[in-house]
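for the writeup, i need someone to sanity check this before i put it in the appendix. the sequnce is what the collaborator sent (i think, or maybe the updated version? ugh). structure was predicted straight from it, no edits. if anything looks off just tell me and ill rerun, i have time this weekend
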Amino acid sequence: MCGIVGYYGKENAAPFLLDGLKKLEYRGYDSAGIALLRGGKINLYRCRGRVRELGSARREKGQLGIGHTRWATHGAPSEANAHPHVYGKFAIVHNGIIENQFELKGELLARGDTFSSETDSEVIAHLLAYYYEGDLLAAMQKTAGRLKGSYAVAAMCEEIPDALVCARSKSPLVVGEGNGGVYVASDLSAIAARGVALYALGDGEFALLNGKGVTVYDRDLTVIPKEPLEYDPEAEAPDKRGYRHYMRKEMAEIPAVIGKSCIDFARDPAYEELTRVLGRTQRIHIVACGTAYHSGLCAKFAIESLCRIPVEVCVASEYRYRNPIVPPDTLALAVTQSGETADTLAAAELAKQAGAYLVAVTNVPYSSITRIADTVLFTGAGREIAVAATKSFNAQLELLYCIASALAESKGGQSYFAELHRLIETVAAAEKSCEEVRGWIPYFLGARSVFFLGRGADYAAALEGSLKLKEITYLPSEGYAAGELKHGTLALVDEGTPVVALLTDPALAEKTMNAVHEVYARGANVFLITSLPEYVSRKEVSSAVLLPACRAEFSPVLSVLPLQALAYYLSIARGNNPDKPRNLAKSVTVE
């Protein structure tokens, strides 16, 4: 979840390191630091807080350096726990979790080592010092052999002024060469703007970066060839294009990414093979976390309604530890925006080992999930910078609905692709209505908590709306099945509780309105998101957003838009930065 960068070349390293870390702040911003080698000595610059606090280090000299932006796991956010960690002649940066850190630390303390941080990462620097005999790459190989858990590591040594070494296991790492330099980063966005050749390291691989370029090695330190990644430098290093925040820019891109997801699915070379698999599929397991889990819940409603195939949607962190039952002809859908979510990767591998056919739904080519899946489907959302997912969620929905349509066809049913394609224009029209939520903000500013209500697909959308609000406004909220509210939770509703009700399915509308009556009777202000105009002027409704109508199974693509907008504008009104919510990171690469 942390971000790491490294550079050696003809330029001073500090500007690249700091610029790269800013591009990686979505991975963590509890603390940051860089280490530069100058005059045979490692110079360390670290701070608690964001990369901008290191601005004075930009002028420092040194052509070799590493940097890190941290999302705290072991040890509180502090300068002492910030990376890089230095021990003796060595400096390291690390993304991941070392699960056997206490065992290793005990050994090192017994040898007389002293530690300066609470982190698990510092043991790596100590192990390098212990195993180093003049060959940094060999020391890294021996160090990696002692580590259990996940890691992407870059290291440098005071005795070697022209080289970096790297190692990877279960955490993403890319290396690059060109423009007179060599580079390493957790994510190609940190390097992409330079337009250099980039290579993705696989699990168990090492890399040596020096004046000769990049050399990649396997576990036995045998040189292995690598094909450069195909990427668009502009797309992988986006800017805000005039918007105040990335989140708002990414919300504006939703109609385009929905269209791309739909069109790309029909053109995907894997479509024919996927159709054969769908034809024999008898049940589906969806594994995901967070927002992706909510997209899975939406897909469950659509698939079971349109295809009559049972779907189990599982929180990946639970699925991986529960010994799941995976009958023959099970299709597993692993949904992960980054393709690096640790729990989803583990759950996906478990489902595949149990005999399921594994389809990955992801936004990131070359990510870890693409290496283990039988078929990979890309959402086409483009790089998403804001921590809170918006356009990637809508793109996931569109792609999952395309799978539902293909599944229905494979079972002899009708195609829904025409309706899904029409959603492109419908979503664009719905976006204009979303600005209505700005008038709701005064009702939410003084709230102690917020409830989101819905039934069917609206319930799944309500869960996502609640998550968005929690993520970036820090207001406690809950997404609830409308019929369940009276079974205990109604005790929390009073005059200070805003309630957002979703109403897009005519067959369920009056049932949902029963819950609206109940909260209204207890003084709550009710805010309605609906595609049914006859409910907009009901006396219980304080204000409403009227959406274009669409098939109820696909309605979350539309109904989530005003929910995203509500969270965004309320976050700003509460003085928060919606792009960088506290305690959260974009890509959760640790358990």
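The first strand starts at residue 3 and ends at 9. Residues 391-410 form the longest helix (20 residues).
thx in advance!!
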